[in-house]
């Protein structure tokens, strides 16, 4: 069984990362472009922030789609 990783939101320093994680917590899953639109990021900056979250295991892609969901529990 896979262990659920939990992260304290207050431990993150990047405000846009926090905003994205909260958005995903509220929405469940969200399309890549919608995340960028709702957080008022440019495409390149949004891509950079999302990639950072994916590479640290905080979010993941849903199958082979552009939908993203939380891969952690926020505390």
How does this model look, in words?
The protein is of the alpha+beta class and about 80 residues long. The chain has a single domain (about 5-75), classed as Arc Repressor Mutant, subunit A (Orthogonal Bundle). Helix content is about 45%, strand content about 20%. It is built from three helices and five strands; from the N terminus they run βαβααβββ. It has helices spanning about 15-25, 30-40, 45-55, and strands spanning about 5, 30, 60, 65-70, 70-75. A hairpin with a 5-residue loop joins strand 3 and strand 4. Helix 2 (about 30-40) crosses helix 3 (about 45-55). The longest helix has 13 residues, at about 15-25.
Give a quick precis of the structure:
By secondary structure, the protein is of the alpha+beta class. The chain contains three helices and five strands. It has helices spanning 15-27, 32-38, 43-55; strands at residues 5-7, 29-31, 59-61, 67-70, 72-74.
SSE diagram, text form:
Elements: E1 5-7, H1 15-27, E2 29-31, H2 32-38, H3 43-55, E3 59-61, E4 67-70, E5 72-74
Helix pairs in contact: 2-3
What features would you highlight for this structure?
single chain; 75 residues; alpha+beta; Arc Repressor Mutant, subunit A; 3-stranded antiparallel beta sheet; two-stranded parallel sheet; 44% helix
